[in-house]
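Re-run with default settings, no changes from the original entry. Doing this only to confirm the output is reproducible before filing.
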Amino acid sequence: MSKGTTIKEALAAWEQKQGEKAAEAEEIKLLCQIPSIEKMDASLSTLNNCKKLSLSTNAIEKITNLNGLKSLKILSLGRNNIKSFSGLEPVGDTLEELWISYNLIEKMKGSGVLKKLKALFMSNNLVKDWSEVQKLSELPCLVDLNMVSNPIEEKHSLDNTWRAEIEKKLVKLKKLDGVPIVRQDDEDEG
């Protein structure tokens, strides 16, 4: 089996292609690397100015080494092999959007550190329990959530209880699965 591409190698290739230093860039895309990136290595800590980091469609299993990303607002990790939210602590005070669809996440443990998170796109994961969804209520800024094709969404969409239950559990949400939420009190104000 071939060795995966390292973040250091991917960043060097990005710099050569873009003609700029990765450490100074506000947006870095390291998608679909061949061979795939398997680990978020310490080279990420050099991306001090990065506001949007895309590492989608690789083979990453763990979120690590985000310590130097003090400006990070959008993190895209879709289509990897990530099983948990742990490792997001260093960006908990800056991250506003997390794109983590098509992974292997079953538990929401570790999501509570994301104090500025406004949008969480995590369709096609493995969340199956309401107790896990309830943990998202700890996110004070969360207004946009996509959980399509998680076992819990599929089960409760079949019996038409999904939207009503989410609206009760996550009262600050304004959009669920791409569809705006209209609450009775919103209509009364208009």
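Residues 128 and 152 are 4 Å apart (CA to CA). The chain is about 20% helix and 10% strand.
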